[in-house]
C-alpha cells in the first residue's frame, strides 16, 4: 500500500495545528446545558414519548458518554504507541518524533476528556454512569498481535475523522463549546490516523497473508467485544435519563430508549470505522477475506431497525 505522506510530514502538520489544553478546555469551564451536545447523526435521541427537555438531557448524556468512550479506548492506544516509541528508539528519528508527539497529544486528549467529565458531573445535576474498566479492556486488546491492535486503532482514528467531517463540522444546532472540543481533538487525530497507517504498513511488510488475515480476525473479535460494552453504556443511559427526568419510564419506553441508544452507539463507534474508505483500503490490500466479514457486519448495522436486547 502506498501513501503520499511521511513521518516527517506528520510532525510538521502536528506542529502547525498544536493547541494548549487550558485554551481549549479550561479547568474551570462551565458547560451550556441549554443546547444539544451532539448532532442527531451521532445521537439519534428523537423519541416521541420524551419531552423536549428529556430529549435534550438524553443527547447530553450521550455526549458525555461519547467523550468518555474516546477516553476509554485511548487508554490502550497510549500504551501501544509507547511500545512503538521504544521499538523505534534507535531507528528512524523522524518516526520517533512523530510517535512521541502522538503520545503527548493523546495524553493531552485524555486530560481534556477528564476535565469535561468533571465539569459535566459537577453541573448536570444527576449522576451519569459511564464505562470505567478501561485498563481491563486495554489489557485485553493489547493481548492481541501488534497488527491486530493496529487494525483496531486505525478503525478508531479514521472513525474519528469521519465523525467530524461528516457529522460535526457543519452542525449548527449544537453547543459551540462542545463542538470546539471535538474540532481540536480532530485536528490532532488527523496525524494519528496517518502515523498508524505508516506503522501498519511497516508491520504488515514482515508478515505473510495468513498472519495478516489472523490479525484482521482479531480486529473483528475486538469489535464484537466493543459492541457488548456499547450495550452496557446504553443501559447506563436509560438509568441516567430516568434520574434526570425525575420519573421511571414505562418498560416499553425504557426498552425503546435502550435500543435507540445501542443502535446509535453501534453506528457511531462501529459502522463509521468499518465503512471508512481508508480502513477498507487497508483491509483490501492486507486481509481481503476479513474485509468481506467487516462489510457484511457493517451492512447488518446499517439495516438494523429492530430491538437489540
Low-confidence stretches: none
In sequence order, what are the helices and strands, one letter per element? HHHHHHHHHHH
Average pLDDT works out at: 93
What does the radius of gyration come to? 19 Å
**In whole angstroms, how far apart are the ends?**
40 Å
What does this structure look like?
- The protein is mainly alpha-helical and about 300 residues long.
- It has one domain (about 50-305): Orthogonal Bundle (Ribonucleotide Reductase, subunit A), CATH 1.10.620.
- It is about 75% helix and about 0% strand.
- It has eleven helices and no strands.
- Helix 10 (about 275-285) packs antiparallel against helix 11 (about 290-305).
- The radius of gyration is 19 Å and the shape is globular.
- The mean pLDDT is about 95.
Which helices and strands, and how do they pair?
Blueprint: H1 7-17, H2 21-24, H3 52-87, H4 93-123, H5 134-142, H6 146-168, H7 176-204, H8 209-245, H9 251-274, H10 277-286, H11 288-303
Helix pairs in contact: 1-4, 1-7, 3-4, 3-5, 3-8, 4-7, 6-7, 6-8, 6-9, 8-9, 8-11, 9-11, 10-11
Amino acid at each position: 500500500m502506498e501513501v503520499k505522506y511521511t513521518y516527517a510530514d506528520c510532525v510538521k502538520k502536528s506542529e502547525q495545528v498544536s493547541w494548549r489544553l487550558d485554551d481549549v478546555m479550561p479547568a474551570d469551564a462551565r458547560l451550556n446545558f441549554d443546547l444539544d451536545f451532539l448532532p442527531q447523526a451521532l445521537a439519534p435521541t428523537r423519541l416521541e414519548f420524551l419531552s423536549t427537555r428529556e430529549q435534550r438531557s438524553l443527547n447530553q448524556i450521550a455526549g458525555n458518554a461519547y467523550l468518555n468512550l474516546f477516553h476509554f479506548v485511548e487508554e490502550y492506544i497510549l500504551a501501544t504507541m509507547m511500545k512503538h516509541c521504544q521499538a523505534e528508539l534507535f531507528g528512524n528519528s523522524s518516526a520517533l518524533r512523530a510517535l512521541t508527539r502522538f503520545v503527548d497529544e493523546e495524553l493531552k486528549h485524555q486530560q481534556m476528556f477528564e476535565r469535561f467529565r468533571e465539569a459535566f458531573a459537577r453541573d448536570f445535576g444527576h449522576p451519569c454512569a459511564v464505562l470505567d474498566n478501561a485498563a481491563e479492556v486495554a489489557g485485553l486488546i493489547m493481548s492481541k498481535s501488534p497488527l491486530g491492535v493496529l487494525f483496531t486503532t486505525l478503525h478508531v482514528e479514521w472513525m474519528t475523522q469521519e465523525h467530524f467531517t461528516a457529522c460535526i463540522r457543519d452542525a449548527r444546532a449544537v453547543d459551540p463549546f462542545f463542538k470546539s472540543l471535538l474540532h481540536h481533538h480532530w485536528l490532532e487525530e488527523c496525524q494519528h490516523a496517518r502515523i498508524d497507517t505508516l506503522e501498519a504498513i511497516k508491520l504488515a511488510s514482515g508478515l505473510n497473508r495468513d498472519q495478516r488475515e489472523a490479525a484482521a480476525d482479531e480486529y473483528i473479535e475486538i469489535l464484537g467485544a466493543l459492541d457488548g460494552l456499547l450495550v452496557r453504556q446504553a443501559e447506563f443511559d436509560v438509568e441516567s435519563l430516568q434520574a434526570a427526568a425525575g420519573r421511571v419510564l414505562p418498560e416499553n419506553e425504557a426498552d425503546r430508549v435502550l435500543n435507540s441508544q445501542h443502535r446509535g452507539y453501534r453506528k457511531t463507534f462501529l459502522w463509521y470505522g468499518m465503512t471508512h474508505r481508508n480502513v477498507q483500503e487497508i483491509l483490501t490490500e492486507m486481509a481481503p477475506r476479513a474485509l468481506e466479514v467487516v462489510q457484511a457486519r457493517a451492512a447488518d448495522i446499517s439495516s438494523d431497525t429492530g430491538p437489540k436486547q
